[in-house]
Write a structure and sequence with these properties.
about 300 residues; mainly alpha; about 70% helix
């Protein structure tokens, strides 16, 4: 008995023609399952009194004890406050600057100057925060280059690294210097995909360069801007460990103590992996809520979200 021929649009025919692609997909899927999704099961440690010798699953359940301990700790709320302050500063100060830089470079006509400037702006992205913290010390300490220049002109030294208010601005400034180049490339790529004819039409109609940027260029990259903004908002309660830890010191501990350093000192350094997991789970949940909230607000404003 002859087999029925496969319909042109059938799933079997599609798999027959594309089985090589799915075979290649097996390796990354297995990798994601083993090293991304399976470790998520370890989040149950946040609800247990973890014992290294008993393991994750045999350790006794204690429910929300770790969360209650964190939420009743003054140090935790101080770390959360500092995390929000530093991340909000990065968002307000550091987020718009790469957009301005990308538009500025896009408007330049000199190809050599534009490429040289772009390279110089991107180079700090390759420096680790260990190196950058050393640069900060050499520049802004009491005996650093900046204060030596102030003293040479008869001005008093500025406590850049010992005054909590001033230290935050040093923190934000170095963050912009180190990270602006990476975001700059993203925005430049978006600008390359814009329709140049719209700007030419606006020029013929008498629009100034600033008007063309505001009414033609920015609307065309608004999707990229809103996507990166949503992702940045989702990181408001998440902060890297190396940057505040290396740039901070005991004199500005009230400003540099953040969630990541709190988890390190109270959780990991003391061997309390269960408590550290609980705080990390709290950060993740709040981050998801912030991303969804920011996405909903962006959509209400008429922009495209990420989902």
């Amino acid at each position: 008995m002859n087999k029925k021929p496969k319909k042109p649009g059938s799933v079997a025919l599609y798999l027959k023609n594309n089985w090589q692609l799915y075979l290649m997909l097996i390796v990354p899927v297995v990798y994601m399952i083993l090293f991304r999704y399976k470790p998520m099961l370890g989040v149950v440690v946040a609800f247990k009194k973890f014992n290294v010798f008993k393991g994750i699953w045999d350790s006794p359940w204690i429910g929300l004890t770790h969360f209650k301990e964190a939420f009743t700790s003054r140090d935790f709320w101080n770390a959360l406050k500092n995390t929000l302050i530093l991340n909000l500063g990065d968002l307000v100060i550091g987020f718009p600057i790469p957009i301005f830089l990308a538009i500025f470079l896009n408007e330049l006509r000199g190809e050599r100057i534009r490429k040289t400037t772009q390279t110089l702006l991107y180079l700090p992205n390759f420096l680790s925060w260990v190196i950058i913290s050393g640069i900060v010390t050499q520049l802004f300490s009491n005996s650093g280059l900046v204060n030596n220049l102030f003293n040479a002109f008869g001005a008093a030294s500025v406590p850049f690294l010992s005054n909590t208010f001033i230290w935050r601005f040093v923190y934000w400034f170095m963050g912009v210097w180190q990270g602006a180049g990476y975001s700059l490339i993203v925005y430049l790529a978006a600008l390359m995909a814009t329709d140049a004819s719209l700007g030419e039409a606006a020029y013929i109609d008498g629009a100034t360069r600033l008007q063309r940027i505001w009414h033609v260029t920015l609307p065309q990259i608004s999707t990229t801007v809103t996507t990166l903004l949503i992702m940045q908002v989702g990181k408001l309660v998440n902060i890297s460990f190396d940057r505040p830890y290396l740039m901070g010191n005991t004199l500005v501990n009230d400003a540099s103590s953040v969630i990541s350093t709190y988890v390190y000192s109270v959780g990991l350094a003391a061997g309390r992996f269960d408590f550290a997991t609980a705080v990390g789970l709290f950060q993740s949940i709040v981050g998801v809520v912030l991303v969804l909230s920011a996405n909903a607000v962006i959509k209400k404003m008429g922009q495209e979200g990420i989902m």
